Fold:
Amino acid sequence: METDACEIERLPDELLAAVISLTTPPDACRAAAVSRAFLAAADSDAVWSRFLPRVLPVFAQGELPCAPPSKKALFHFQRLADEPALLPCQLVSMCVDRATGAKCYMLSARALHISWGDNPNYWAWIKLGCDEIKTNKSFKEAAKLRGVWWLEIRGKIHSMLLSQNSAYAAYMVFKLADAGFSQLDFPFQEASISVGGSESTRQTCLQGYMKVGDDGVPRKHLLVSRTRNLTLLRPRRGAVPLTDDIVLPRKRADGWMEVELGEFYNEDGDDGEVSASLMETKGGVWKDGLVVWGIEIRAKQ
Structure:
């Protein structure tokens, strides 16, 4: 084993750094503990310049320290990795993923296309308290669904804003109203993501959740609505069981829920558009009680 380690350390510093630069920031930090040769390579600018975003929007350049001692220090001192910064439009924020160095974005509810979103009969815009926006203080309002037959929520971002050669996923960040919600279980919603000419779709259930049974096997369940309409407590005709292919939301550390709309790979950052959507337009049912904070597009690890 010691012989193997010595043989590796005989590699030129440039080659060792090139190999480590193909990993991730956490892997580079672990490699630095192997030996002095690995430490020198793992801390080099050649490695950490690969982890930094190649191009930052003009608005974000002021978030970086003026004279960082090294590329590694620049990566770890970036305020963008801790607190999202707003784009000039005030509707989209950006941060840097510490694990990959990829640029990640959140589209606020105001930045989304929400069918009937400008009609107060169907949607209301509500203010959020400080305890509700711990992870992103940029967006202090959300769209609350009063009730619609046609649910369509769509967000778009230019692919050139994203990091090249990076895997991403889009998530809708939402809550279900404490005062009651209905018809968000079935018919299932359709989530989709499109990049260029390709599109992928999946079925989601915003009213679903996972629960581990007595035998330790996770099973899918439905939340029961607390609306005054008692008929919603009874199973409806035509309801379909929650099968394995139905994507369910998960609860985040900040108290919000998120459901994955889809994933994609941004190869060369072509001059194109990434579109993520969630809709339910075919069931002919009245839906209400959904609170939408935005759509996040972040690195898929």
